[in-house]
Amino acid sequence: MSLDFDIRTRPAKPVETPEAGYKGFNPGSTVLKKGVCLEKGAMPLPCDIIHDRDIVLKMRDGARLYADVFRPAAEDKVPAIVNFSPYGKGGTGAFTLGSFPNRFGVPKNALSGLQAWEANDPAYWCGCGYAIVQVDARGAFDSEGDIIYFGSGEGRDGHDAIEEIAKLSWCSGKIGMSGNSWLAIVQWRIAAERPPHLIAIAPWEGLTDPYRDVFARGGVPDTGFPEAVINKLYGRNNVEDPMAMLEECPYFDEYWADKVPDISKIDVPAYVVASYTNPVHVTGTFRGYALLKSAKWLRVHNTVEWPDFYDPKYTEDLRRFFDKYLYGKDNGWENTPPVRMSILNPGHNDIVDKPENSFPPEGAIYRDLFLNASIKSLEENAAEEEAVTSYSLDGSGSYVDFIYRFKKDTIIVGAPVLNVWVSVEGHDDGDLYIHMQKLDKTGKQLLHQTTDIGLKHGRKLLPLLYKVGMKKMELLFFGGADGILRLSRRGETEKKTSKGEIVEAQIELSPIAMSWHDGEQLRLRVSSRPVKPPALPGIPRPAPQKGKNHFIYTGGKYPSKLSVQII
Question: In CA terms, which of 245, 275, 374, 447 is 20 to 30 Å from 322?
């Protein structure tokens, strides 16, 4: 897509910034010998590896991107797995597992240290007969041009990079893509460009619509996390500034549309990994999987992306996928269940890798739970009498809860939808934050632990979380599905509310699969502020809302309801 206006940019952080870990521009090749430990406590290399540094990949507009190649020290041609991102090739960049408490549960001896951030470990993959190619995206470190913050330009660059890699003397011409987060996001975009030598992709948790998934979810601008990311991008030129662009383009328009890949164009097999827990990735990953028309497999894990991505069990699983399509091995991969899902069960044991044919699973049925403002409950039948409840935008109690008690074991699965009638006092707009949470029989909230950072590390992290206003380590503990809506964004055009006007709002919550047992409770919280913290401590949240009160209407001509699917 060619945009008819200028894209705002800002200077990228200099590559010489100490935390960037820049090692200099150093083209050449080195043989890394089997058995060597590159870092104290790291995994020894399983084989001899040739490391080709700073090779040139020329783009269609003449820009040169630089990549590092790690390949087996053998004469045979091998397929390549490409990791494409602006974070920096292995050993560079501000993000490392070591900067997180307890490495988020990834043991140091599980990796060699050659891996780029959120990317495959070359040591393992070279030992299995693959090359790993780490591409510094346009503008990153020594790659020429300006850093693109998602968009069609990344897709074109990825297309050209793959075709350049396929020409290299050691490459079999069979290329796959892999990686987590940004490295997953870019796979959707690149695969939609259909580079001829791209054979398979494995996007591991990554959004597919930046505007709707993170920058303005539900119409509420929230740039804290994107701003934190842009401050960790290093290069010699500029970086696209989507925060500035959001001020110029506050509604979904051609600028934001350029950042949404046409997933229907993807024609290669895909191994898609999702979770219910990462607020940046959840909805976009499930959306991407649903839109795929090529051969596809979905696995939904119950932790967070880093320990899952480097879990030996799932690394082997991914190897079977690539063995099938990049090596053509008859290994039975095609018999893998189309969906393997986790069912979260806070307070009890999760179900993991449950085979299904689809998500939501076949046989899931719809059920409406109606809000009753008079008794603050969710009911199976709509109340005949109208009722209203409210909360103030001032103070800590800026929410109202509706409770449903289960009479038998039930699993809620898929993306719940809330239809609710509301009005605002003292302003012509309002933001609704919706949270669907699990309580035990006594009303205590049950949280799902996503990973074990260890008590020692947790105590160190807790003061930092308190400093930014968090009461629990919800970076590591997950409460349930959530949704956001700015009332003026409830239609295709802006619709401000007039004084006393009661309007219907529809909010789709994030996908979930969670169990409730007999006697346990579902709490639907309607609030004026987010409950979930940002993905990283210290990131600011949206500004407080204006106005006095939000009113919630139920019953009679206001059949406010939560629609769920159950199995």
Answer: 275
Beta bridge partners, 507, equal 418
Angle between helices 182-192 and 152-166 (to 10 degrees): 80
Model confidence over 315-370: pLDDT tens digits?
A: 999 999 999 999 999 999 999 999 999 999 999 999 999 999 999 999 999 999 99
Domain residues for the domain of 13 are 9-336
- Assign residue 445 the CATH number of its domain: 2.60.120.260
Token pair in block for residue 103: 């490495």
Cα-based torsion angle of the residue sequence 268, 272, 278, 279 in order, rounded to the nearest 10 degrees: 50
Does residue 346 belong to any structural domain of this protein? Answer: no
The closest alpha carbon to 316, from 156, 502, 120, 150, belongs to 120
For residue 523, give the 3-state DSSP assignment.
strand
CA-based nearest residue to 484, from 411, 522, 406, 541: 541
Give backbone dihedrals phi and psi of 196, rounded to 5 degrees, phi first. Answer: -60, -30
Could you give the C-alpha distances from 320 to 11, 121, 245, 324, 327, in angstroms and in order?
Answer: 42, 16, 42, 6, 10
- 269 and 375: one domain? no
Count of structural domains within the chain: 2
The number of beta carbons lying within 10 Å of the beta carbon of residue 236 is 17
Contact call for residues 528 and 430 (beta carbons, < 8 A): yes
Residues 6+ apart with CB under 8 A from 414: 359, 360, 364, 511, 512, 513, 564, 565
Picking from 248, 134, 266, 144, the residue whose alpha carbon sits closest to that of residue 195 is 266
| Short-list 342, 452, 448, CA closest to 106 | 452
**At residue 298, what are phi and psi to the nearest 5 degrees?**
-120, 135
Q: Which residues fall within 8 angstroms of residue 461, CB to CB, at 6 or more apart? A: 101, 453, 473, 475, 537
Q: Are 318 and 410 members of one domain? A: no
pLDDT at 154: 97
Indicate if 209 and 103 belong to the same structural domain: yes
**DSSP class per residue in 154-223:** HHHHHHHHHHHHHTSTTEEEEEEEEEETHHHHHHHHHHHT--TTEEEEEEES--S-HIIIIITGGG----
Q: How far apart are CA 170 and CA 159, in angstroms?
A: 19
DSSP SS3 for 554? strand
Q: Which tens digits make up the pLDDT trace of 522-539? A: 999 999 988 755 445 556
Amino acid at 89: K
CATH number of the domain bearing residue 157 = 3.40.50.1820
